Amino acid sequence: MKKSIFVIALVLFGATTMSAQEAWNFGVKGGVNFANFTGDDFSSDNSRTSFNVGVLAEIPIADRFSIQPEVLYSGQGFDFYERDQENVFDTDDNVEYQVDYVSVPVLAKIYLVEGLSLQAGPSFNFKVNEELDYQPLDDAGDIDTDIARDFEFGGVAGLEYKFNNGFFIQGRYNYGFTKLIKDDSAFGDADIHNSVIQAGVGFMF
């Protein structure tokens, strides 16, 4: 079901793109994620530093208003530090719980002044990877887990500045409205949500 929804989203994205090439602006983007979890049942000061990368399209609706759909790969999760140096694992400085998504945000984009825009809207996030990695600086140390939900409904808000040459910079906050943990997992109905700060750059063609 998850794969079917994702395929449909990509097909719709591609089909509408081809039918509106003259009106739309297309782009690529990438950046850094500072990801963590938040909620009544979780507290941590250790964010996971990862990345996001993807494609986007800007659909002008009015002089200062556009709709911007995107398809992104987003690395999320959190870090917890391994303090016992005599443990059975050969660890790096930290251990990461990694939960990565293909995210499809659909954002309203309001230009406050020329080049500077406020962006906000929903994000439809599909889990594509989940693991505990006790050697995040190496290819080894991956332990597969399956406690996070396969789909998350979230929200995105942020600011972007686009230069006349098409280059842009942006900062965003992403929050998962859906609870992260599956109801049938060992953690039950825990109140834990994704929380991600993103900083990135991109280019509009």
What descriptive keywords fit this protein?
205 residues, mainly beta, Porin, eight-stranded antiparallel beta barrel, 1 helix, elongated, signal
Would you spell out the secondary-structure blueprint of this structure?
Blueprint: H1 2-19, E1 25-38, E2 48-62, E3 65-81, E4 94-113, E5 116-133, E6 142-144, E7 151-162, E8 167-176, E9 193-204
Antiparallel strand pairs: 1-2, 1-9, 2-3, 3-4, 4-5, 5-6, 5-7, 7-8, 8-9
Characterise the protein shown here:
It is built from one helix and nine strands. With 205 residues, the protein is mainly β. It has one helix at residues 2-19; strands at residues 25-38, 48-62, 65-81, 94-113, 116-133, 142-144, 151-162, 167-176, 193-204. Strands 1-2-3-4-5-7-8-9 form an eight-stranded antiparallel barrel. It has a single domain (2-204), classed as Porin (Beta Barrel), CATH 2.40.160. Residues 20-181 form the Outer membrane protein beta-barrel domain. This is Porin family protein. Residues 1-20 form the signal peptide.
